[in-house]
Automatic annotation (TrEMBL):
<keyword id="KW-0614">Plasmid</keyword>
<keyword id="KW-0813">Transport</keyword>
<keyword id="KW-0997">Cell inner membrane</keyword>
<feature type="transmembrane region" description="Helical">
    <location>
        <begin position="242"/>
        <end position="261"/>
    </location>
</feature>
<comment type="subunit">
    <text>The complex comprises the extracytoplasmic solute receptor protein and the two transmembrane proteins.</text>
</comment>
<feature type="transmembrane region" description="Helical">
    <location>
        <begin position="357"/>
        <end position="381"/>
    </location>
</feature>
<feature type="transmembrane region" description="Helical">
    <location>
        <begin position="214"/>
        <end position="236"/>
    </location>
</feature>
<dbReference type="InterPro" id="IPR004681">
    <property type="entry name" value="TRAP_DctM"/>
</dbReference>
<feature type="domain" description="TRAP C4-dicarboxylate transport system permease DctM subunit">
    <location>
        <begin position="9"/>
        <end position="417"/>
    </location>
</feature>
<feature type="transmembrane region" description="Helical">
    <location>
        <begin position="169"/>
        <end position="193"/>
    </location>
</feature>
<feature type="transmembrane region" description="Helical">
    <location>
        <begin position="48"/>
        <end position="67"/>
    </location>
</feature>
<keyword id="KW-1133">Transmembrane helix</keyword>
<comment type="similarity">
    <text>Belongs to the TRAP transporter large permease family.</text>
</comment>
<keyword id="KW-0812">Transmembrane</keyword>
<dbReference type="GO" id="GO:0005886">
    <property type="term" value="C:plasma membrane"/>
</dbReference>
<feature type="transmembrane region" description="Helical">
    <location>
        <begin position="103"/>
        <end position="123"/>
    </location>
</feature>
<dbReference type="Pfam" id="PF06808">
    <property type="entry name" value="DctM"/>
</dbReference>
Amino acid sequence: MSPFAVSIASIVLLALLGLPVGHAMIASSILYLMLAGLDMGTAAEQLLNGLFSSYILLAVPLFILAAELMNSGSMTLRLLAFCNAFVGRFRGGLALVNVLQSIIFAGMSGSAIADAAGTGKLMQKMMTEGGKYPPAFAAALTAATAVIGPIIPPSIPMVIYALVSDASIGFLFLGGVLPGLLMGLMMVIIVLRTARRRDFPVEPPVPLRSLPKVTLNAFPALLMPIVLLGGIYGGATTPTEAASVAALYALLVSALLYRSVSLKSVYASLLGSARTTASIGMLIAGALVFNYVVTVENVPRTLAAWLAGFELSPLAFLLIVNLILLVLGCLLEGTTILLVIVPVFIPTAQALGIDMVHFGIVCVVNIMLGLITPPYGLLLFVVSSISGCSLKEIVSEVMPFLLALLLALLIITLVPEVSLWLPRLFGYKG
């Protein structure tokens, strides 16, 4: 076996034995360097250069911290009350609230897991209280709506994609708005159809005279995406600086305006975000080292030359990438795919003239759908833990939503303007 084949086999074996993927990639990359007779210190050099020269990576822990602070305060509760006031009055109203809150919350956290673990717990309780909705349906809907989080800006996966592709984070964020809204619309259609067929309850309507008060209570929380995105596209902040503003804004609103956090809860938020960041950080570190191995082996160029032999059209290439990423999304963690698999496809995509913002949106949507695709489907395990439902029950309920989201992915793939119209409106020349 070649050193590269041994390295790949080592990653698979170590991962199967339970070692975190990031650690497995670092260990296997060092093994490759040793077998290939290269300087093993290169691993440390690549790791340090990658981490310390990537300013945009600072946005990841800051967006995670912002989401943690929102969940520890009462911002989430006020947002749910606001959503319920407008759509709760329709049949299946609480299910529609679940979709709407995910669209709004997506403009704040940038993380599907943060969405499901934060507002998901509250929505599960609200929907199942008094036997209004089957617990498995509520859990499946929470998992499906959570995938919108990293599509509508801000988005942690898009920050990571920008790291490996050199695409503009600002334009990637803009490119995710319409695809995210399209995915939300697809789920609204499924909810309305299911509510009518299964006769889901109608919530008591919130009186019109109460709407101004509910809106005012939620207004500081609703203002957060405007502050965040306004700073980026107004030229006042970089995406990383905007992430720090988001975290500070969440803290100030929760502590000074809503008075809903204590020093203990702030400490818990800092601790939770540090743990999540460390987990993502190890994956990034491992991928940086392993990507050096991939580059030494000339894998991207070899793959590009191999695919060129098939004379694929840009559309055929995108459909093949969709299929590969959907299959891998069932088995691998999303960050690993973005850091290890996607960079291999980028040279071919560029050679075929595929826009890097459009390609990034397609990749991120694929990877998010992997979070609710059996057998791995990380979000399915998260909501199973929250709801107490079995994985089998949740998978059965999530399938209509997954099929609707796959249709949305097909539209995003076939119609690049869905991703590119808004960036071009703001001056994108790609």
